[in-house]
Target: PTS lactose/cellobiose transporter subunit IIA
Amino acid sequence: MAREITRDDLNQVSMQVILHAGNARELTMAALTELTAEKPDFRKIADNFKHAHLELTEAHSHQTDMIQLEANGDFIPYSTLFGHAQDTLMTIQSEMLLAEKITEIEKKHGGDSNA
Model:
């Protein structure tokens, strides 16, 4: 049976997506900051990426819940905030992917004394 998701419900979900995606961005930026150190601690960087992935998984889960509800026939109102949350999530996923690749390159070419 289809139900209607309220704007308040969708706002709450949107804020959870933004919150967890933002946490992932902070962790990703911390990893990149560590990468710029004179002697980067690659274990610390890997730990930041690990926790960033957990945050992105949480954000993605909230987004997917709404998509699945709509796919099952529930009415999801249009929301600029939810659109912004999805854009934020996608952008941070891309940032993290690039940061991880940059880290791989640095480890390969810059030396890795503590991997």
Remarks:
- The two ends are 52 Å apart (CA to CA).
- Residues 80-110 form the longest helix (31 residues).
- The chain has a mean pLDDT of 93.
